[in-house]
Amino acid sequence: MAEYPLVNEVYHKYFNHTNPPIRxxxxxxxPDNVPVILDAVCKNQTEHNPNFLHVQSISHxxxxxIGPYSQAARVNDIIYIAGMIPLVPGSxxxxxxxxxxxxxxxxxxxxxxxxxxxxxxxxRDVVMGFCxxxxxxxxxxARREWEKRTNNGIVDYIVVTGLxxxxxxxxxxxxxxxxxxxxxxxxxxxxxxxxxxxxRRRWNYDNSVSAIVCYVSNGLSLSIGNVAQVTANQEEDLNxxxxxxxxxxxxxxxxxxxxxxxxxxxxxxxxxxIFYKASAMNSSVIENVFHQLIQQYTxxxxxxxxxxxxNPNTIVSICALRHY
Length: 324
What we know:
This protein has helices at residues 4-14, 45-48, 99-117, 139-149, 232-238, 245-259, 283-293, and strands at 51-53, 72-75, 78-81, 87-88, 93-94, 126-133, 154-159, 169-176, 182-190, 195-204, 209-218, 271-277, 302-306, 314-323. By secondary structure, the protein is α+β, with helices and mostly antiparallel strands. The protein has 2 domains: 1-177, CATH 3.30.1330.40; 181-324, CATH 3.30.1330. The strands form 3 sheets. The protein has a 6-stranded mixed beta sheet, with helices on one face. A 6-stranded mixed beta sheet has the order 9-10-11-14-12-13, covered by helices on one side. The longest helix has 19 residues, at 99-117. Mean pLDDT is 88; it is low at 221-225. InterPro entries: DPH6/MJ0570, RutC-like_sf, YjgF/YER057c/UK114. It holds the Pfam family Ribonuc_L-PSP. GO terms for molecular function: diphthine-ammonia ligase activity. This is Diphthine--ammonia ligase-like.
């Protein structure tokens, strides 16, 4: 994050227009030969006619941007919100407080930006989101604050090494104006004695939008749910059982079948992110799996190493969004 101003300068050369795209920036554990990871989704403006919210002046209702990006973009019924950190709107300074107060302020920003894009859409209409924190002990607090506002959205909690302005939390979500038409499914199964898969899915009635968050966990720790209760030795034990390539391939194929809702005619995935615990997985295994999958599906995955995931036993989380 020390290079955030330089990143903005370079970024601005390519997105120097009235309504730049939304974005979220995090600092994480990158391989030695990878200085930066970019994940992008493009839409045909002629077909979709997107609307943007790009506030650059200081106000008191929500923070202005701190870089060349828009706060929100609406494509048809989907409202994408840029990563929100707990900046005090009137001063644009980080709220000097702990994780609880920072989380509350950032979520207030999320709610207000959604409302600014559509008065009839609220934070409870979030379908899917990512909560980035810099300390694994903050996950439970962030989760409780989210669930006070809504249980509708499926959220992935991810621990990274740094956030803009040294924030403790950043929320990155998207909402749907017809969220009440979405269904919810929660499934899971044990692969073997060592690995467990849990999947949460939301999709609308006409199957035009489908979102999934899938966790792959080490079965050694299924009884451990709170990161605060895990010692360093226990955490090392959780990383002993590696995830074989064939096993991961089976998992991702399962995710794809649920994402497409068993419709084998659908082959397009708009956004596919794979977060993996850097201390427990090797990126080459994931890369090999997706090299096989791109022969079958039209997907471009983004593979992202992180410090921790939602639970101590979670070693991979797969997040996917498919819509027409």
